Amino acid sequence: MNHKIKSLVLSLAIIAIFAASFVLPVAVFAQEERKPLFVGAWPYLLPPQGHFNTFVTNALTFGIYHQMIQEPLALYFWANQSYIPWLATDWKVEGDYFVVHLRDGVTFHDGTPFTAKDVACTWQIHYMLNHPIYQYIDKVEVVDDHTVRFHIIKASPVLIRYILREPVRPYSTYKEYCDKVAQLWAQGKGPTSDEMKQLAAEFRNFRPDKYIGTGPFMWTGEITEAEVWFKFYENYWNKDRVKFRWLKLINGETPQVTPHVLAKEVDYATHGFPPATEKQFIELGIRIIRPPIYSGPCLYFNMKIWPLNEVWFRRAIAYAINKTENAWVSLGLSAKKLPLMSGLPLEFEEPWLYPETRSKLNPYNYDPQKAAQILEEHGFKKGSDGFWRYPNGTVVQFELSFPAEYADWSAAAQNVAEQLTAFGIKITPRAVTFTQHPQEVLDGNFQLAIRHWGGGANPHPYFSFYADFIYWNQKAAGIGEGRPGISFPLEQDTECCGHVNIKELVFKCAEGFDVEKQKEIVNKLALIYNELLPGVPLWERYGNNPALDGVRVTGWPPDDDPIYKNPPYGDAFVVFMLLTGYGLKPTPQNMPTPPGPAGPDITMIAVILIIALVVIAVGIYYMKKK
Which of 375, 462, 355 is nearest to 420 (CA)? Predict the structure, then answer.
C-alpha cells in the first residue's frame, strides 16, 4: 500500500478515536433533560465569600428558596392564619412546655435521618447568637428521636412562630458547636457570657464544606456568577407533591435580573422593578402579581448626630417629604403612602388599633410650611442661597446612603434627596452595594439611611415593632453583636405614655394568648412610634412580581386567590406553591421527552457509527498491506 493511502487510513482511525472521546460524553449529556424546570432569581455571592454556614452573614441561603433546601417544621397560610404540618406532624402547649412531634422517615440529602437532635441543634446555635426567642423560652430538650420540647418562661404566639417557621439545620454539620453550646448552657453560661461570646465569634468564621437539608432540592455545586442549579432529591419525603425536578436561580439584583425577565428566561422574580420596566413586562404579556409585603423603605437617622437625635427635627423632616410623590416615582402602583405612620402595615391597623388610637396618630402629611416653622422655632434660618443654616450659621447638610441595587429604594432615596434639598436641607445621596449597606447601618457608619420598617413576612405586630425599634438598633436593644445601629434610646419620656421602656413593651406585646391584652400594648407602641419617630416610613411596598405563564410554568392562581395574602418573602407564596403543588405546574414543553420503542438512542447510534468507522479504517489498512 502506498504511503499516502496508509497515512490517510491512519489519520482516519485517529480522527475516529478522537471523535469517540468527544461525541460520547456529549451524547450522554444530551440525554439528561433538565425538565421540568422552574427558574427563579435571587442575588448571591460566589464562594468563598458566599458560604454554607446558613446562620451568619453572606451565607448561600438564596433567600426565599432557602426553605426548599432546609425546611421548616410547618408552613403558614395567611388567609386563614393557620400552620400546616411539614417536618412536624403536630404540636401543642403542655403545661410549661411547647411540645413538637416530628415526621418519621425524613432524611437529609446525605442520607442521614432527620431527628429531634437536628431541631435542638438549630436552636442551640440560636441560643449562642442570642435569638429573640429566648425572651420566651429558656430550654430546648430532646425527648426522643421524634419529639422535642421547649420550656416556656413567657407564653406567646411569637415563640410558636419562631419555632415552626425556622429552617432546620443538620446536627451532622454543626455538631461541634451544638455540643459546645450545650455544655456551656448546662453550666449556666448565657449568650452574653464571655465564653459564649468567644464561641460565637469563632462560629461566625465556621465554613461547612457541604450544604444539606431535607428539602426537595439539593446542592449540585453548579454555581457561577450568572446562575446556580439545584436538582431534585429523589428520596424526598413528600416527592409526589412536588411537580418540578430542577430549580435554577439567576444571580443578581434588579439591574442584572431585568434582561433575563424581558427575555422570558425567568418564571418568577421578587425584585423591586421600576415602573418603566414593569410597563415593558406587561407589554410582553408577562403578568404582574401585587401581594402585600407588610413592610417598606424607611428613612433612618443616626442618633449620635445632632440634631438627628432631636424628635422635633425628625418631625420637621417627616413634614418636608411628600410621601405620596415618593411612593409613585419609586414603585408606581405597588407603593402606598401610610395614612397613620403607626409603625404597622396598612393591613394591621384596623384589626389591631382602636379607633381612638387611630384618631390620635399624626399622619405627618406633606407640609413644608410646618417643617419650616419647626426649624425656625429652634433657631434655624434660611439663607439667601435657599439652604437652612444652624444657629451658628453653617449649612444644614447630610449624606443619605442606600442600597445601590435596590431599584425601588434607590429611587426613593434619590427622591428624598431631591425633595429635602429643594426644601433647603442639602442632601448628598450615596449608593452602597446591597450586601455592604446593612452592615454599614448596623455599624453606625451613616448619617441618614434607607432601610426597612415593618415585620414583613410575619403576621403579628410584635415583628413590626421589633423591626421599627430594635432591628437597626442592636446596641440599645442589647442583642446580637451589640453594634450601634441607629443608637435610638429605648427608655424615654413620652407625652402619650409617660416614661417607657420600649424594648420591654415590644416583647410584652406578644406575651400570652389573650389578644385583647396584646392589643393594649400594641396601641401604646403605635402611639410611641408616632410621637418619637425613630424613622420616617416612606410608604408600604406591594409586590410587582413578574410571573411568566406558558413558557415553562403555568397554573398561576387568579389575583383574588387567598394564596396571595402570603407575602413574596418569608412565607413566600411561590415557595408554598412549589412545595405543596398548589396551582403551579410545568407546561407540556417543560416535561421530559418520554422514552418510546420507536425513539432512537443517540448514544447507541454514536457508538455504532464510531465503531464501524474504526473497523472500516483498520480493515482498509490491512487489506492494502496484504
Answer: 375
The answer to whether 257 and 41 have CB atoms below 8 angstroms apart is yes
Conformation bin of residue 432: beta by default, left when phi > 0, alpha when psi is -120 to 50: beta
Between CA 580 and CA 28 the distance in angstroms is: 33
The residue length of the chain stands at: 626
CA-to-CA separations, 440 to 154, 401, 451, 486, in angstroms, rounded: 34, 9, 11, 11
Q: How far apart are CA 578 and CA 75, in angstroms?
A: 12
The per-residue pLDDT for range 515-535, each reduced to its tens digit, is 999 999 999 999 999 999 999
User: How far is Cα 494 from Cα 510, in angstroms, rounded to an integer?
Assistant: 22
Read off the pLDDT of each residue in 195-211 and give the average, rounded to a whole number: 97
Report residue 298 as a C-alpha cell. Answer: 424607611
Apex 352 CA angle, 349 and 358, nearest 5? 55
Angle, helices 311-320 vs 407-423, to 10°: value is 100
d(CA 125, CA 118): 11
Tell me: pLDDT of 613 over 80: no
DSSP string of 254-315?
A: HHHHHHHHHTT--SB--S---HHHHHHHHHTT-EEE--EEEEEEEEEE-TTSTTTT-HHHHH
**Given a cut of 90, is residue 2 above it in pLDDT?**
no
Residue 474 banded pLDDT, cuts 50, 70, 90: confident
Contact 268, 574 (CB under 8 A): yes
Write the pLDDT tens digit of every residue in 263-321: 999 999 999 899 999 999 999 999 999 999 999 999 999 999 999 999 999 999 999 99
* Phi, psi of 109, deg, nearest 5: -60, -20
Task: Find the mean pLDDT for residues 200-220.
Answer: 97
Q: How far apart are alpha carbons 170 and 71 in whole angstroms?
A: 11
Name beta bridge partners: 37: 246
Query: Please, are residues 557 and 585 in contact by the beta-carbon 8 Å criterion?
Result: no
Residues 6+ apart with CB under 8 A from 334: 272, 278, 290, 541, 542, 543, 544
Average pLDDT, the chain: 91
Measured CA to CA, the distance from residue 86 to residue 63 in angstroms comes to 19
Backbone phi, psi, residue 472, to 5°: -95, 20
For residue 458, the model assigns a pLDDT of: 83
From 553, 446, 534, 462, select the one nearest 504 (Cα to Cα).
462
Confidence check: pLDDT of 432 > 90: yes
pLDDT of residue 477: 75
Sign of the C-alpha dihedral computed for residues 120, 124, 130 and 134 taken in this order: positive
CA distance 299 to 169: 35
CB atoms within 10 A of CB 383: 11
Contacts of 13 (CB under 8 A, 6+ apart): 614, 617, 618, 621
pLDDT tens track for 167-195: 999 999 999 999 999 999 999 999 999 99
Q: Which three cell numbers stand for residue 233?
A: 432529591
Query: In sequence order, which residues have a C-beta less than 8 Å from that of residue 568 and are 6 or more positions away?
Result: 64, 270, 291, 293, 543, 545, 574
Within 10 angstroms of residue 426's Cβ, the number of other Cβ atoms is: 17
Q: Assign 3-class secondary structure to 123-184.
A: HHHHHHCCCHHHHCEEEEEEEECCEEEEEECCCCHHHHHHHHHCCCCCHHHHHHHHHHHHHH
